[in-house]
């Protein structure tokens, strides 16, 4: 192994989050569920919900058999409920096409709904320990800093960074290596305040040591400018209202519905007026996403 590989794996063995439930058990189902849950959601929020979800739906077959409304109920606390719908669709496909067993071949994995190149690499690395490299912004940031220096301005394209990341994976150790890269990016080599003094790769890194103030100046100078918008409190957004609609429907006993009129009265009373006026639009969007279902003038989880 190279010096980078030895150092990072040794660091992971001592400081990594190997006790995360989806890492303790190397199961493609655990990997898929965790990847869907971790999209735009912090690890600390995912851990307790993951355990409850797995207890109720322990396998692809169990998830495929479960009512979608119940899957959405068990998704409570994670937000972005369309992820629950997509996860259920994936489980249905695994059962229908592959008898409940996740395939290992890339081309077959890509046939599954909701699965792209990142998820394919994650399944192959985390569940099967194949020499694959799940690539996200954290991993690309580490590779850029180690090989080229601070990422502002960018000195390598994403394609080159991805190639280098794949070359770094030690043979037969993709699970631990990819876990280590994820943890290093989340805990040490962070986007805004890297802790170089605690990094096992410090003496091998072109960028180290990074001064946080200088990094911020470079980021402001070279990062792609975002469209200037006034920040809107979450409670005033359509996403907040959507969440309240779904939460209210979660409270209904299985099989029961609530009238759209009663639901509208409740929701309009707790969301911003301009959002409440879009109640019909919000419900229509949730129905299109197969999160809710209407039956005449009544509604429930789908």
TrEMBL record:
GO BP annotations, alphabetical order: base-excision repair; mismatch repair
UniProt domain HhH-GPD: residue ranges: 37-187
A Pfam cross-reference name: HhH-GPD
UniProt keywords, alphabetically: DNA damage, DNA repair, Glycosidase, Hydrolase, Iron, Iron-sulfur, Metal-binding
GO MF annotation terms: 4 iron, 4 sulfur cluster binding; 8-oxo-7,8-dihydroguanine DNA N-glycosylase activity; adenine/guanine mispair binding; metal ion binding; oxidized purine DNA binding; purine-specific mismatch base pair DNA N-glycosylase activity
Known cofactor(s): [4Fe-4S] cluster
CDD domains: ENDO3c
Name of the protein described by the UniProt record: HhH-GPD
Organism: mine drainage metagenome
Taxonomic lineage from the root: unclassified sequences, metagenomes, ecological metagenomes
């Amino acid at each position: 192994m190279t010096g980078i590989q030895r150092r990072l794996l040794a660091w992971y063995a001592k400081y990594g989050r190997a006790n995360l439930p989806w890492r303790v058990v190397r199961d493609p189902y655990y990997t898929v569920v965790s990847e869907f849950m971790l999209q735009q959601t912090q690890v600390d929020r995912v851990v307790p919900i993951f355990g409850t979800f797995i207890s109720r739906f322990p396998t692809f077959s169990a998830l495929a058999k479960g009512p979608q409304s119940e899957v959405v109920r068990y998704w409570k606390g994670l937000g972005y409920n369309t992820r629950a719908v997509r996860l259920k669709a994936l489980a249905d496909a695994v059962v229908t096409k592959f008898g409940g067993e996740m395939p290992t071949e890339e081309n077959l994995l890509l046939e599954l709904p909701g699965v792209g190149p990142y998820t394919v690499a994650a399944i192959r690395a985390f569940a099967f320990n194949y020499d694959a490299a799940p690539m996200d912004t954290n991993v690309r940031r580490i590779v850029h800093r180690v090989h080229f220096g601070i990422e502002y301005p960018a000195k390598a394209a994403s394609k080159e960074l991805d190639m280098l990341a794949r070359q770094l994976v030690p043979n037969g150790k993709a699970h631990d290596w990819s876990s280590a890269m994820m943890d290093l990016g989340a805990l040490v080599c962070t986007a805004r305040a890297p802790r170089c003094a605690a990094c096992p790769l410090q003496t091998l890194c072109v960028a180290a040591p990074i001064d946080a103030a200088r990094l911020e100046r470079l980021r402001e100078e070279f990062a792609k400018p975002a469209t200037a918008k006034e920040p809107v409190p979450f409670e005033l957004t359509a996403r907040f209202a959507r969440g309240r609609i779904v939460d209210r429907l979660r409270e209904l006993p299985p099989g029961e519905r609530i009238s759209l009129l009663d639901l509208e009265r409740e929701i309009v009373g707790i969301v911003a007026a301009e959002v409440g006026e879009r109640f019909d639009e919000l419900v229509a969007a949730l129905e299109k996403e197969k999160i809710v279902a209407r039956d005449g003038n009544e509604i429930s989880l789908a």
